[in-house]
Write a structure and sequence with these properties.
Elements lengths: L3 H91 L2 E12 L5 E11 L27 H29 L1 H4 L7
Antiparallel strand pairs: 1-2
Helix pairs in contact: 1-2
Length: about 190
């Protein structure tokens, strides 16, 4: 049979155990509340980011659907003109002159009549100028700068709740051990 002081010690030990369970439930509810706050804040952050990104997405869609195909068409036309010009230059390199026949006076007869003869004259072919300019690539839309989600406040609150829970549990366990064994908490009363 337990003596009265032992009964009180057991009762205190049971009470401290239930206190720890209560503290664990409080800690869990505070963590759940913080998680809810975090999710709400993060959802708001995502909505803000989506709102900031809407103009950029519209610009990017216009860029892909309109500006880029127009540029590609202009580039293809420019490439074709450049190829045609290079073909003309290659033909000029193979045949740089044009030949023509010209009738000239080669002399006069003894009675004063002019003699005509044909000569071949080689005229240099003119080099054509390439005046086309390459199309400029349209500027790619720049995404707006999005600030990073600030988790610091929630991390601080969670760490604070965790440290409070650990401190309270540590105090409760120390009280429980002290209630069961007086030697540890009151060394002067160890002989009692």
């Amino acid at each position: 049979m337990a003596t009265l002081p032992q009964f009180k010690q057991r009762q205190i030990a049971r009470r401290s155990t239930s206190d720890i369970e209560r503290l664990a439930k409080q800690y869990q509810s505070s963590v759940d509340a913080l998680t809810g706050e975090y999710q709400t804040a993060f959802t708001g952050y995502q909505a803000g980011v989506a709102e900031k990104m809407k103009p950029f997405e519209a610009q990017m869609a216009a860029y892909k659907e309109t500006l880029l195909p127009t540029y590609e068409a202009q580039k293809a036309t420019y490439q074709k003109q450049l190829e045609d010009y290079n073909a003309v230059l290659a033909d000029l390199e193979k045949n740089p002159v044009t030949a023509r026949t010209e009738r000239v006076v080669t002399g006069t007869t003894w009675y004063g009549k002019k003699k005509y003869g044909d000569i071949t004259v080689y005229d240099p072919r003119p080099i054509p100028k390439f005046t086309e300019t390459a199309p400029a690539l349209p500027a790619v839309p720049v995404a707006p700068e999005i600030e990073k989600f600030d988790e610091g406040e929630f991390g601080t609150k969670r760490a604070e709740a965790e440290s409070t829970f650990k401190r309270e549990v540590g105090e409760r366990r120390a009280a429980k051990i002290g209630a069961v064994s007086r030697k540890m908490t009151r060394p002067l009363l160890a002989g009692e």
